[in-house]
Amino acid sequence: MHADFQSWVAAQQVRLEDVLGGVLPRAEAAPQRLHEAMRYAVLDGGKRVRPLLAFAAGELAAATAERLNIAAAAVELIHAYSLVHDDMPCMDDDVLRRGKPTCHVQYDEATALLVGDSLQTLAFQLLAEHRLNDDAQRQLEMIKLLAVATGSRGMAGGQAIDLASVGKSLTLPELEFMHIHKTGALIRAAILLGAHCGTVSSAQLDKLDRFGKLIGLAFQVVDDVLDCEADTATLGKTAGKDADNAKPTYVSLLGIHDARDMAQRLHREALDALAGFGDAAQRLRELADFIVLRKF
User: Where residue 171 sits, what CATH number does that domain have?
Assistant: First the structure.
């Protein structure tokens, strides 16, 4: 990862923090506790990988900064909502997220539930009230895209499969199916939403979608490896949680060595999907490197 990319990432993270701080309700606005908890769950934390992918795809498509800001913020609000709900006792029951107490620990379970609900609806409010594409029909497609990626045919469905798979042995295709939904769907949506804010052809969208699918899977494989090898301080969440909960992972199925090999293969295939974009896809390539090579 060279300095120029690091500088770009840092600038986009600052940019997104400013956007999120502006679109989230003010902490002092009623109901204050809920709004305070929403800001706690979203601000000041995380690598912001999904918004970074949206920004990078938007740059490729020559999208305006104003449109990209809204698309990236909407994706991050969905991601933050999913983390709040995933950490609750009825799901993964975790106490640490992004290096600080999880939302239900810092506040309470009922507040955390409402935080997730509110962040999700705010994401769709943003997509509906801002012009993100000159074609109204295309903007409706963007809203649908995020809805499908978030719901039972996407992230929520993947989480349901994950919860039902605890203590079970899954085949590799079954594990991939779960993670294409649980993790990959929102990553793919982030890339496509960023691209839709600009001008891209159907063929280019297909390439970007393939890139998103491959790098989304790679992201999860690397996460599984890090869960086994990294410590809690590095991860910002409880290390070893998947093994402790007898969850099927790429490491439990393949072993560390083969899981690493799989991540590298997915990385190569993802980069191949960007062939033909030239320098316009440089940030996406660098993000692919970052996703696969982080602490690896």
Answer: 1.10.600.10
Question: Would you give per-residue pLDDT tens digits along the chain (296 residues)?
Answer: 445 999 999 999 999 999 999 999 999 999 999 999 999 999 998 899 999 999 999 999 999 999 999 999 999 999 999 999 999 999 989 999 988 999 999 999 999 999 999 999 999 999 999 999 999 999 999 999 999 999 999 999 999 999 999 888 899 999 999 999 999 999 999 999 999 999 999 999 999 999 999 999 999 999 999 988 766 655 565 655 666 667 889 999 999 999 999 999 999 999 999 999 999 999 999 999 999 987 53
Rounded to whole angstroms, the Cα distance separating 243 from 187 reads: 24
101 has which bridge partners? 96
What is the value of pTM for the model shown? 0.93
Residues 60, 203 contacting (CB under 8 angstroms) = no
* Residue 124, domain extent: 3-293
Q: How many domains does the chain have?
A: 1
